[in-house]
Amino acid sequence: MQRDAPPRAPAPAPRLPAPLIGAAASSGGGGGGGSGGGGGGASAAPAPPGLPGTTSPRGPGGGRRTEEAGSAPRGRKWPWRRKWRGRGGAWSAAAGPGAGAAAAAAAAAAAAAGGGGGALEAAMAKQYDSVECPFCDEVSKYEKLAKIGQGTFGEVFKAKDRKTGQKVALKKVLMENEKEGFPITALREIKILQLLKHENVVNLIEICRTKAGASPGHATAPGPEAHRKYLTSEGMHTGYPGVSSPYNRCKGSIYLVFDFCEHDLAGLLSNVLVKFTLSEIKRVMQMLLNGLYYIHRNKILHRDMKAANVLITRDGVLKLADFGLARAFSLAKNSQPNRYTNRVVTLWYRPPELLLGERDYGPPIDLWGAGCIMAEMWTRSPIMQGNTEQHQLALISQLCGSITPEVWPNVDKYELFEKLDLVKGQKRKVKDRLKAYVRDPYALDLIDKLLVLDPAQRIDSDDALNHDFFWSDPMPSDLKGMLSTHLTSMFEYLAPPRRKGSQITQQSTNQSRNPATTNQTEFERVF
């Protein structure tokens, strides 16, 4: 007698893909943030050796570095992840601050990518019914005091905790034009800031939200008619301010909460009453290079070094800020170059390799910005104020010499080297042009080494910290005493423009696009 075939087990429920935090796909998402890390029912992973406990190359007292800092270990378990309980069971989020919004955005991206058919869409829709950014506190716990910054990626406010009175900085993530969910730049910034824990890097406390479906300008969520009118047939948001789509319940309402710093360097330099002594300049640059050393050892590029992104607390502690353009980097493998975007770094601080189209770059791009900032400590104004990329290259050639294969091997292989009409016949005169401002010979020498055209020959942060500039009299001194005489916060956003000299006319701006046909004196105004 023939037996009947055993009944087949029902197919397991479709698995939702884990969210990818950041631009580069890796195992895991963002690191644990703030003090205490995650929430949502799962404790944050222990801090790996070599991150928060990494020894700085220079301590507060200026001592020499005695041990190497570690880089981020491979295979780290990030707090932002989705895990399954059993085969086909429900998923749960083990999350750090703000993971609810991040998970929702990632799931929306997974749905848009397709795959899994109707069952997957139904499963996602069911899960979204219960997603209300549960891991984020509401931003109403903070009282906004003043607007202190504005940029391409959001606004920054000074605020205080209504219960404790703690001063914080709120950075609003602009999402009105985002149709794909949570902005990838914000996800990358969150991931990086939760990874980096150092006294010279700004501290991310938590992530907050406004009430789901409402913006600060709406007391309640818009009604069904507003949703019907401003949502497309696919259910994606098309731009109505304050309206959240089915795939992004927290649109237009995410805030990153940071420790408050009373000043930024651009604001301090714009105030003629603020005078830095040589020993105080040494301390500023020591802390700045210390922060760069730390992030570079942990394979992170800042990619927007400028004076406005260097914050200083009332106690004189410098912190690198605004990691909105930052990203992880790696060494090229198997002779395959990296292909990073070169549309980064504010123009006045952008290194020549990026202006020439280089996409396989590394830490030297941040060291060029550090050199510009160091010179700015004496000139009180950005030293190369180009109007276009062509103009900026001309100013660089005026100061650092003409860009040729003799001084920069293989520069002729860069994408834009032959396409741009570069200034010819210029000699390097960094020290000659700056000596009227910078009287210390060691300072001139360090600036000269930071502003080297060839990134392969540019000094790195470790060697810069060991430069004689920091080990000759006068030694670096604390900033607290000088800052104690300035009780008002100073930020670039609140200060008058620092651009030196008269505004260039439109005619000279157009002429600067073709340096070969322009009078040489047009490019003499370097700073």
UniProtKB/TrEMBL annotation:
Similarity remark: Belongs to the protein kinase superfamily. CMGC Ser/Thr protein kinase family. CDC2/CDKX subfamily.
Gene3D superfamilies in the cross-refs: Phosphorylase Kinase, domain 1, Transferase(Phosphotransferase) domain 1
InterPro entries: CDK, Kinase-like_dom_sf, Prot_kinase_dom, Protein_kinase_ATP_BS, Ser/Thr_kinase_AS
Annotated segments matching region Disordered: 1-96, 498-527
Compositionally biased region (Basic residues): 74-86
Coiled-coil residues: none
UniProt domain Protein kinase: residue ranges: 142-470
The keyword Calcium belongs to this UniProt entry's keyword annotation: no
Compositionally biased spans, kind Pro residues: 7-17
Residue ranges with Gly residues bias: 27-42
GO aspect biological process, one term: cellular response to cytokine stimulus
GO-annotated cellular components: cytoplasmic ribonucleoprotein granule; P-TEFb complex; PML body
GO MF annotation, one: protein kinase binding
Binding site for ATP: K171
Biased composition (Polar residues): 502-521
Catalysis: reaction(s): [DNA-directed RNA polymerase] + ATP = phospho-[DNA-directed RNA polymerase] + ADP + H(+); L-seryl-[protein] + ATP = O-phospho-L-seryl-[protein] + ADP + H(+); L-threonyl-[protein] + ATP = O-phospho-L-threonyl-[protein] + ADP + H(+)
Keywords, in A-Z order: ATP-binding, Kinase, Nucleotide-binding, Nucleus, Serine/threonine-protein kinase, Transcription, Transcription regulation, Transferase
Keyword Zinc-finger belongs to the record: no
Taxonomic path: Eukaryota, Metazoa, Chordata, Craniata, Vertebrata
Subcellular locations according to the entry: Nucleus
A Pfam family hit: Pkinase
Listed name of the protein: Cyclin-dependent kinase 9
EC number from the UniProt entry: 2.7.11.22, 2.7.11.23
